[in-house]
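Predict structure. Chain length: 218.
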Amino acid sequence: MKTISNTLKTLLKLTLILILLVSCKETPKSSGLDQTKIMEGLMDEVSGKNVDINEKYDLLLKELGTKTSLTNEQLIEAFPKKLSNLSLDAAENKNVEPKILDSQLVAGSFGDDTVRMEILDAGGQKAVGAIIPLKMLHLNKITSESNNTIRYTKKERNGILTFGTDRDEDTKADFQSELRFLYDNRFYVTLEGKGMDTDALWNAMGIDNLKRFKEYNK
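Prediction complete.
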């Protein structure tokens, strides 16, 4: 019976891997990393090598599932109005304010579209949609890898694990750098920057500019 139980668990994990890989292919921007490396990390999960990571994200999912999501008004109020010397850009209606793009998702650009920021409130119903992509990035074995004109990094900044992408300036990408991380164990932040690497993008953001979100995380 124990052997059957273990087999079922393995089959369930393999099914999860297939679901995650299909999801990753359908939303490549959410993965941001090499598919082969992601597969290696997920295979480690099947073999039981990612116990600590699994426990971390399982606990996060349970905790976030109990949260009451912020209202649109709270998301807009908490969103930074300035990043370092970069002011929030005006919207189409000429009002200087961030936009609500989707349920629990707020976004805005700064410094004439030099930096773009999206913040997803991963509390309540959005917990799975935020945590699964971050878990996939964490499972990936890359800490620093260069792939032609693209470099992927996994780096801790101010006690926060961040996942970065840097592109050469001569690429046709709209933004040369990208950062993804979970702020205060709840808010899934995506940053994109023009003409700067991920270190400069992190410094331009300024972690203290997100403190209003932390105040709302109760």
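Summary: Residues 2-26 form the longest helix (25 residues).
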